[in-house]
Amino acid sequence: MTLNEVTISRAILEEQHQTLIDYLEMDAAVVGGGPSGLVCAALLAERGVKCALIEKKLSIGGGMWGGGMMFPRIVVQDEARRILDRFGIVSREFEPGYYVAKSVEAVSKLTAAACSAGVEFFNLIAVEDVMIRGDGRLGGLVINWSPVDMAGLHVDPLTVACTCTIDATGHDAAIARMVERKGGDLHVKGEGFMWAERAESQIRDHTREVFPGLFVTGMAANAVAGECRMGPIFGGMLLSGERAADLVAEKLGR
Fold first, then answer.
1. Residue 150 covered by a domain
2. pLDDT, tens digit, 9 for 90 and up, residues 147-186
3. Count of domains observed in the chain
4. Is there a contact between 46 and 78 (Cβ–Cβ < 8 Å)?
5. What residues contact residue 177 under an 8 Å CB cut-off, 6+ apart?
6. What's the CA gap between 247 and 252, in Å, rounded?
7. Where are the alpha helices (DSSP H) in 182-234?
8. In this predicted structure, what is the pLDDT of residue 1?
9. Which value, in Å, is the radius of gyration of the alpha carbons in the chain?
């Protein structure tokens, strides 16, 4: 078979351009491809929600890839082990109440599950602003290529409309902070010091709608609430993603 370079290029461009056009309007946009964002997106798509995941980096997985200090293992407490099992992630009991899993397997299987459920991924895309209209709710995102932002180039962005936005940007709580900076009725307290037990026990309660149309999950939820950080234990992140999916699905009537 003779390979035609133009055909290869056309296949990529036509397919991705059509996908982008199809997702200029969507039910839910998850911003951030870490563990909570992946779980949230996968579970929403399983319920028939038109969902895209927007990630500013090239790779998906957030902090879970590196495990703890680049040792590719993560810890999950007993309460969240069922989510590992649900996505086919192998774990073993380290001591009562604590399970250890491979970080690379966890990220890969969560990502594969999201793809299989119908989530559309837009990586290397940064959200640089939000759209809030007269109704006072967040109804869209202003997006651009991450390299444009990194290089400081003056290139005008594009916009996408979404009924619900899920801030899964981690410690930065980037979307929530945009709303705050733009004068929205939202105060981001910023995350506290390391206290795994407290952070893990509170993160699910902090996962909520913090501004009309904007939900927070994972470390973004703790950052908005002024809660502690937890390090390389990820049960709370997984449970937070599940909680966010439940809340958004309820909002959308799914």
1. yes
2. 998 999 999 999 999 999 999 999 999 999 999 998 889 9
3. 1
4. no
5. 188
6. 9
7. 196-206, 219-225
8. 67
9. 18
Write down the mean pLDDT value for the chain: 96
Q: Does residue 76 surpass a pLDDT of 90?
A: yes
For residues 169 and 174, what is the distance between their CA atoms, to the nearest angstrom? 6
Q: What is the CATH number of the domain that holds 122?
A: 3.50.50.60
Return the pLDDT at 70: 93
Residue identified by tokens 């798509």 is 45
Distance CA 52, CA 208 (A): 19
Long-range contacts of 55-59 (CB under 8 A, 24+ apart): 55/121, 55/122, 55/123, 55/124, 55/125, 56/123, 56/124, 56/125, 56/126, 56/127, 56/146, 56/149, 57/33, 57/123, 57/124, 57/146, 58/123, 58/124, 59/123
Contact yes or no for 206/190 (Cβ under 8 A): no
Examine residue 79 and state whether it is found in any structural domain, yes or no.
no
Checking if the pLDDT of 234 tops 70, the result is yes
For 109, what's the count of Cα atoms within 13 Å in the CB-facing half-sphere? 15
| Residue 8 domain-assigned (yes or no) | no
pLDDT for 134 equals: 87
Neighbours of 72 (CB within 10 A): 16
pLDDT of residue 98 exceeding 80: yes
Q: Which residues contact 245 (CB under 8 A, 6 or more apart)?
A: 39, 40, 41, 43, 44, 47
Q: Which domain holds residue 210?
A: 23-70+103-251
pLDDT in tens, 1-34: 677 999 999 999 999 999 999 999 999 999 999 9
In a domain, 144, yes or no: yes
